[in-house]
Amino acid sequence: MSSAPTIKILDLPALHSGIRDRIMESIERVVDGGQYVMGEEVEAFEQELARFTGAKHAIGCGSGSDALSLSLQAADVGPGDEVLCPAFSFFSTASSIARLGAHPVFVDIHPQSLNMDLEATKEIVSECTRLKALLPVDLFGRVAQIDGFVNLGEEIGVPVIEDAAQAIGARDGELACAGTKARMGCISFYPSKNLGALGEGGAILTADEAVAERLRNLRTHGQSAPNHFTELGFNSRLDALQAAILRVKLQALPEWLRARKEVASYYDAKLSEAGALPWGSMLSQAELPLLYPPTPPKPAQSAHHQYTIQVLPEMRETLRSRLSQRGIETAIYYAVGLHEQPALAKHGRTPRPLTITDEATRSVMSLPCHPGINSDARSRVMTALVEEVKDLVQLIR
Ligand SMILES: Cc1ncc(COP(=O)(O)O)c(C=O)c1O
Asked: Whose CA is nearest to atom 14 of ligand 1?
């Protein structure tokens, strides 16, 4: 076991320590103000979030999962409908579709981005008879090929709902923030996200006035005027306390994004120097059998939510346990494709083999990459990773 301090996959108390006073002030303001659900804090946060992302409307809600459910309902997705989404994502990408009685139709991911493959989507679209929406995910903070999906959606007459839960701060161009080009963009403020609440929270971004109004009604039980309920909605309002905390954290977000980028660039350089190759390459052709996330083509910018590498499946668990012994935490997102989750078995459809998804579930592992990783920590991570992979490859080959 290492005597050096553990390098955590995420350390929220440490992250909050620099803004703790301001967080406590914001909590006191809400406690003393007496408005605990919605109200001024939520409205102010929604405006600040809209300004940060460039979205016309930002609508706060109870979680990222609720943001997806509300958006799907606002797109009139209902029983028997089909929605195309990737199987390499968090559970609620697909469960939000299934909960409405609709079918998630799983599309494979692209090996160079691990995001839903646009060409594969085009092939499957023509086989769907009740297609109601496209739901690409900005996985690990990298924006999906959103222009392509929006064009495809326009061609076939269905909206795009972007699962940008992991991608606040990512850009798909100089000005276009993740979640702003699709009809609706869904953000999560789960504590571990780049902009995390101290509890649950989410938001939907949209430029469409009518959609925004419907979403505001839907998050309040479907209430369109006091005591007047026009459709069955949710109770999914954002707490004032979370909004107030998120307002403080939003101010720190640009600096945190810069810090994440610095760690990721360091990892990119070190891994490339050691003989690793970018995602989409053959592991067997790399001098060091490891693939790292390629920089997205300019002008896109990742939000570096996760720094995810791919390794030989037969070494993954041993590698993780050796890194853990050296005081380095790692995580796996995602070990099981959504097409293989028992809860989705009778809801989901998989028209084509999900070869790249299945490979990814066996080979991915995420490294600590957050603003708390200082230069000592990042060099420890790289030294240990490269040494252990080199050693394990000798044992395997
Ligand atoms: C890709 C993706 N979609 C949806 C969600 C759901 O967000 P939440 O946990 O806020 O409900 C998450 C968060 O875990 C996510 O990573």
From this structure: 90
